[in-house]
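Technical note accompanying the year-one report. For the benefit of new consortium partners, we illustrate the data format agreed upon in the data management plan: each record pairs a sequence with a structure-token string. No post-processing was applied to the example shown here.
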Amino acid sequence: MATLRSYPTGKDSDVFGRRKKNDSAKDGGAAEQVVDGVAADGQDGEEIDAAPRRVNLPPAPRPDGPWDVTEVPGSPAEGRVDLGGILVPGVEGMELRVEVAGDAIVAATVVLGDSAVQLQAFAAPKKEGIWGEVREEIAAGIIQQGGLIDEVEGPLGWELRAQVPVPMPDGQTGAQLVRFVGVDGPRWFLRGVISGQGAVRPESAGVLETIFRDTVIVRGDGPMAPRDPIVLKLPNDAQMVPDGVQTEDQEGSRFSGGMGQLERGPEITEVR
């Protein structure tokens, strides 16, 4: 049975803003400032331009998911936790946490053992995928922080494997291993952040990758601007556990006790 928790989030680690074509860096958020800076100084521009660009392309086929709600036969919510904008597969022993910014639920995190995957869904253009562009922005932001990035083609397609600088209790700066994965769908984009052992040892992340693949996105038919977050909600029968309260079945997990002990990478939340 999954345990559902909620916890607040800030915007100090945002690396994915709302980007509009021809917007200035000031209006586009920190990630756009970094991208524009790299292009302007010329230090890395040649290497980036020389590489094959995978931006502004149509969404790639998704034979193994994630799924649009229209692609799932029967009842899409069967065997999944209904969070409104996304339906998250249920796995025995998992903990499901929802991430709150103000009054809005902006993400869901599945914790399983010593690994976790954070899920967020966004609106996207009808005929154009955004994952290639988002990868560039995330990579630029992490590099500016002093981190390291490796772009590889993994089990979920192109992903970023990052070493993200994090402050340590003794005041020193350490590095957290994080995997950023993403898939473009019909008018939506699903992004995942895999952390814990699933990032340290990617070969051990099979269950988390299956959860990501089997997630169902419910975008809705209404108009949405690209990169607007798809609204999430709490399930009607949710068992909420306040952040910081440890349940009996979590005592053996390094993720117990709330988000303070769950080391996480930069989050994608809206930047205005």
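Partners are asked to follow this layout when depositing records. Residues 15 and 138 are 6 Å apart (CA to CA).
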